[in-house]
Specification:
single chain, alpha/beta, Rossmann fold, 6-stranded parallel sheet, 6 strands, about 30% helix, globular, binds flavin mononucleotide
Length: about 160
């Protein structure tokens, strides 16, 4: 099994979830973590599982993620299992105002086969100010990420 975890992260929290998932998934095979800004079509060659994670920005998918996905060739995820997560502030009514369902839909439109429902990991503030690393994850999110990764592997029967 070969897995690729792709993330976008402004303050480092979505990247930490991606890395935590990789710790679990790598027990089942070759696992790479790559930022979406660096993703190329070649990274997807021979990959069985693609997980995409992004913060929710403005109640939806950040523009950087949208444009990177739009640049990928049609059908590039055909035959691959896919899953998507976001990091979002807890109080928002989740179904409507988070990125993950839209991310998963976009992965499906590229041909991917969903193996899990969209997942949200929680941050403590929606502050949009500043740059640089900022630890915003609520307690327990790293454990949740590893649990979810385990469920994905189970679903894939690896
Ligand atoms: C421009 C911008 C817009 C944001 N909009 C939302 C939002 O609509 N809903 C929400 O829950 N959080 C929002 N946030 C907070 C992000 O979800 C939070 O910064 C992110 O989960 C942290 O992940 P990161 O460290 O990987 O960037 C926004 C953050 C930024 C920078």
């Amino acid at each position: 099994m070969k897995a690729l975890i792709v993330y976008f992260s402004k303050f480092g929290n979505t990247r930490r979830i991606a890395q935590a998932m990789a710790e679990t998934i790598k027990q089942a095979g070759d696992t790479r973590v790559v930022s979406i800004e660096q993703l190329t079509a070649a990274d997807l060659e021979g990959v069985d599982l693609v997980v995409l994670g992004s913060p929710t920005h403005g109640f939806t998918v950040p523009e950087a993620v949208r444009s990177a996905l739009a640049a990928l060739p049609a059908g590039i995820l055909a035959g691959k299992s896919v899953a998507a997560f976001d990091t979002t502030v807890r109080p928002w009514p989740l179904r409507l105002f988070r990125a993950a369902p839209k991310l998963l839909r976009q992965l499906s439109q590229l041909g991917g086969q969903p193996v899990a429902r969209p997942q949200t990991f929680f941050v403590r503030t929606s502050s949009t100010q500043g740059t640089g690393e900022r630890d915003l994850l609520l307690a327990g999110q790293i454990d949740r990420a590893q649990e979810w990764a385990g469920q994905i592997l189970k679903q894939m029967r690896v």
